[in-house]
Amino acid sequence: MNPSTPHGGIPAELRCRFMFRYYDANNDRVLNPQEFKRLLRDLRSARGLPVDEAAIETEAQGAFAIFDIQGDTSSDIPLDNFLNAVGHLRFRGTSSLLRVQSSVRTKKVEDDRGAVVTPARKRPATGRLFPLNAAVSVSSTDLSSSPKTTTRKSDGEEVESYELAMHSVKVRRSGILADVQTLWDMDGSTSAGSNTGEQQFKLNLCRMNSIVSFNMRNSGNEMLGGLRFFEKEITAEDVAQNKGLKSVKPAFDWGPTSLDKFAECLLEVCKALKPIVQKEPRLLRLKAPVYVLGDIHGNYCDLLCFEKVLWRMGPVLTPASFLFLGDYVDRGAHGVEVVAYLFAQKFLAPDRMLLLRGNHELRNVQKNFTFYEECRRKFGESTGERVWSAINDIFDYLPIAAVIDDEIFCVHGGVPHYKLLNGTIETINKIPKPLKSEAESPLAWELMWNDPVGTDRITPDLDRLLQADQGFTPNNRRGTGHFFSSVALDLFLKANGLSHVIRAHEMKQAGFQIQQDGRLLTVFSSSGYCNNTNEAACILVDRRRLRTIRLDTS
After folding, report:
1. What is the 3-state secondary structure (H, E, C) of 340-352?
2. By the number of CB atoms within 10 A of the CB, which of 13, 198, 358, 508 ranks highest?
3. For residue 117, what is the enclosing H or E element?
4. Tell me, what's the pLDDT at 7?
5. 78 by DSSP, 3-state: which?
6. How far apart, in whole angstroms, are the C-alpha atoms of residue 63 and residue 92?
7. Helix/strand/coil (H, E, C) string of 14-76?
8. To 10 degrees, what angle do helices 381-395 and 260-278 make?
């Protein structure tokens, strides 16, 4: 490794995987005691510590608790345990291993025949070469630039080439993901990494995201694992048959389990997710197919139903994107769990799980409703405040709107007043980041709060007000924002070359409603909202159709 290779983030996990393979001499995917002691010897030597057998044995004995290994020093260390311990800084000092003293730059030299010759690599000072099934070449250049290969179609258009995914997944009949393995860890798959010259097996940044998604020890997957416990009913029979279960509990309940670990994991997810949402534009540009979901409002049961119907194997393995229009919290009992689930999925599949901001993703609104107190009740005042603040720090960066296939405008509330747009929806990208209050962006406020006015509500007086302001009038029902008529909607669509608007923000009995001459769709994705009998629905945007899907939650 170059001395400048980072020991954090994606490069760190790659380096740790290489390190594990380096010391796994028999290539059995675990570090046996002798292999682990060899690693300890090199680590202590690099740090200038004694390397006698007694010192190494003492450190080895104390390390097994760090790796979550139940047993004595004759136990093996699996890769996941190794990655988890290093990634959470429980096993430290590995950043000094497998590094050269000065930067190595491989120079390509062309021989007389025009072939590319690469100077042979020298053996690292710490020992043998990596016993990999195939040569692996990863450099800081691969990680920073990762250029995409392209293919030229018959019409001259260049499109991104297909590449072999680096994981094989096993799925149960129920659709639940059962196992994930990298191709290079599977027998008979060595050809996945074999090629010639500079075409040798490389891991680019796109594939690094895949490694993050399928690492069952990262904070996103650990959060989802904890939520599976929350979802599950535990009976007396389960307790009797499984020594790991200590008490009965109903489904969608934490039982007597302490929520301290849940809070800690949620804070880690927020920390990991923040740089991802900071990079997203305020106006997303998406391509079909996209499932569009409306308000969730703490209804974890319905969210889980949508998972089973739409992305049972997870967003990464589902050939569609999922756009949520906001209002994840308040009024429902499980706002914290809904946020934890969506944030974890967003971290694992940032280009598939897309979260917009609704009017309940605002601090003052949450204090007037239930989410603020829910955090304090579940985690205690001090930790609850920390969790609530960390979640809202993510909300401050969420996109405000999205456009699908340059035609379908998606937003939580509705069409903003024409004076705020300056003639184009690209103005939305000028909304500041972070966004904490109404005063910072009246445009964002209207996108989150505005409502359509139904023809059944238009009185002669209201009609005059609408005509006087190109289809807008103050929203006296909410006390903020505007109502907009079909006239305002039509002007908005024509000005921006759009065909439809999909929005949320209002409960509908069937889970959706088609309004304003079929050009406006309202979708609501939480059934039984506030003790009503309404259904939950979503909208599929695909193959030039807007298809409504109602969810049977009975």
Report:
1. HHHHHHHHHCCCC
2. 358
3. strand 116-117
4. 55
5. strand
6. 11
7. HHHHHHHHHHCCCCCCEECHHHHHHHHHHHHHHCCCCCCHHHHHHHHHHHCCCCCCCCCCCCC
8. 20
Tokens of 450: 């505005």
SS3 410: strand
Q: 491, 470 in Cβ contact below 8 A?
A: yes
What pLDDT, in 10s, does the model give residues 386-413? 999 999 999 999 999 999 999 999 999 9
Structure tokens at 291: 């499932």
pLDDT tens per residue, range 454-503: 877 888 888 899 999 999 999 988 999 999 999 999 999 999 999 999 99
In terms of pTM, does the model score above 0.90? Answer: no
Tokens of 316: 């990464």
**Among the options 297, 334, 360, 505, which is catalytic?**
360
Distance CA 236, CA 233 (A): 10
Residue that has been written with the tokens 């939580």 in this structure: 412
As to burial, measured by CB atoms within 10 angstroms (0-12 exposed, 13-18 middle, 19+ buried), residue 158 is exposed
Residue 312, Cβ density class (10 Å: 0-12 exposed, 13-18 middle, ≥19 buried): middle
Tell me, yes or no, if 360 is annotated catalytic. yes
Backbone φ and ψ of 15, nearest 5°: -60, -40
Taking CA atoms, 39 is separated from 25, 50, 96, in Å, by 11, 14, 12
* 263 backbone dihedrals φ, ψ, rounded to 5°: -60, -45
| 355 in Cβ contact with 324 (< 8 Å) | yes
Q: Which residue has the tokens 């001459």?
A: 517
Task: Give the E-state strand segments of 207-359 in sequence order.
Answer: 283-286, 290-293, 321-324, 353-355
Can you tell me the distance from the alpha carbon of 29 to that of 182, in angstroms, rounded to the nearest whole number?
12
Go through 339-369 and write b for each residue having 16 or more CB atoms within 10 A of its CB, e for each that does not.
bbbbbbbbbbbbebbbbbbbbbbbbebbeeb
d(CA 306, CA 340): 16
Which residue from 277, 382, 255 is spatially nearest to 339, judged by alpha carbons? 277
| φ, ψ for residue 239, nearest 5 deg | -65, -40
Tokens 């059934």 found at: 527
Sequence-separated (6 or more) residues with CB below 8 Å from residue 125 = 100
Residues in contact with 14: Cβ distance below 8 Å, sequence separation at least 6, in sequence order: 138, 143, 203, 208, 211
